[in-house]
Specification:
Layout lengths: L12 H6 L9 H4 L5 H10 L10 H5 L10
């Protein structure tokens, strides 16, 4: 299995929060062409800017991305 973040560059969140030109919705499946829906689901859970809404580390470790082999 390829590393989920291998070769991926994520924009700095500070730029998204301070500039309206950066504050736009990006389609992850287009931006990260070739990754699976499972990986997209995991990324979406990680990339929620509001910390109150973002999944906790414990929740992320229960995500189906981390299969029985990983655990």
């Amino acid at each position: 299995m390829n590393s989920l973040f291998e070769g991926t560059k994520i924009p700095v969140a500070a730029n998204s929060l301070t500039s309206e030109s950066y504050a736009r919705e990006v389609c992850l499946t287009t931006l990260l062409n070739g990754i699976s829906e499972l990986q997209i689901s995991f990324l979406r859970a990680c990339l929620v800017i509001d910390g109150q809404q973002r999944s906790s580390t414990a929740d992320l470790l229960e995500h189906p991305y981390f299969d029985a082999e990983f655990k």
